[in-house]
Amino acid sequence: MENLNRYNLSQAARILNIKSIGRSKIYKILRKLSIVDETNKPFQRFIDEGYLDFGLPTIRIPGFTVQTPVTLVVGERGLEFLRNVIEGYLKENQGPVIYKRKSKRITFDGDSIIIEDAFEE
Hints:
Layout: E1 7-8, H1 9-16, H2 23-32, H3 44-48, E2 52-55, E3 58-61, E4 64-67, E5 71-74, H4 76-92, E6 101-109, E7 112-120
Antiparallel strand pairs: 1-5, 2-5, 3-4, 6-7
């Protein structure tokens, strides 16, 4: 991957400026399309092509070393790749909500309380 400009996925989402698409939705799309694994690490094919890379930032506290989660990194070529992937995904999946958030619905039925799963749009 080129060393000129590298962006984390939050920065890349702001640069791409695709309506209602932020870092979390990009990760979900990339996982769904098998571009990154469940830990958000890109598969080797996409690293070799120069589209994506990752970092494992380490925080050093005297006496401790803490490994933080995988940070996806993209360069200029990766930004164009992400734009094409996201726009292609949105064309094929034209719903306004890519993923629905799971929540609870509470209703009162006389003297009882009913708690059930609900999905918000």
